[in-house]
Amino acid sequence: MTAGSILHSVLVQGRLAYAMRRAAAARDHELGLQIMTPSLLAARLAGGLLRPASRESIEIGIRAALSQRGLLEDITPISGLPGATRAVLRTLRNVWRAGFDLRAGPYAGQPRVQDLARIEDTVRLHLQPGERLLPDLCDLAHAAVRVAPRVIGPLRIEGLHAMDPIWRPLINGLREFIQVEWDAPAFCDASWFHGTPRHATAKRGKRRGVSCADPHHEALEAMRWARELLASGRARASDIAIATTAPVAWDDYMLALVSASSLPLCFVHGRPALATRDGQRCAALADALRGGLSQARVRRLLSLVSKQGTILDELPDRGLPVPSEASLSTAADWERALAPYPETASILGSGAQAP
What residue ranges do the domains of the chain occupy? Predict the structure, then answer.
């Protein structure tokens, strides 16, 4: 650490906020800054080699608990059903985030709660070295709050609308040893915070209503609005957001418009694999392998793997020299149809044998 770069930390929430804050820190050449989420903050206090347990490790432990005979009582009838692992994972995550102790309180004696406690113990046995469950990580962080001035420094909470109950006592406990500031958004619940958050003033912008016929029309107007802001210079790309409570109905239209307009739109909730060319290639190959060598499937696959530097690029005119109406549903049909074209048959045969 260079001179003048005093250690200080920023707390954000979510992967997107984490990535954006890191990018902003790099652009502004901020030194001595640690950017963390609540779970990473707890891991930093608990020990430098500790980290939150990954989803894969937790699922391995859950599957082991569900398959172990005689371990569970109330959950046993549904333990073998599809989706049981994911359901238990969601339940445990909600329990952990709420700060609920499965072994204490008025519900600890209920059979289902006891089953969840047994599953939690089994998950601990299947964690990788250095991994800890959120409750364990929080307890270790509580025990090490005295080292916060050296490993955390002054802490600023940025943009968190809500803090999970499991982390609230830890944040309040840190206030006894370091300075904790919260730049709280307007109208968020800060009643649990023992300090005085700096609430941002709610800004009143201009609202404009546009009548649209369907989701495609709405997506089109949204893209026109974004392009207008960029073209006029009134906003940067990072300042523009197109949001809705359930984006599924608009995703396909937005993907098509992004491709047509070349606007670099970031989908915060992710893009479906079939919306990418690599995903389409995998789907075409899987369709051909599972459904059989019909001419439509083979032509679709060839169109997607063209210009990829494979031997299939050597096909004459990058196509098939057989009539499109020919019914080719078996390997024998393909061999007979390609017999007059030995060069094409050789290339296709080599491509099929390539790893």
Answer: 8-50+137-199, 54-127, 215-271, 277-353
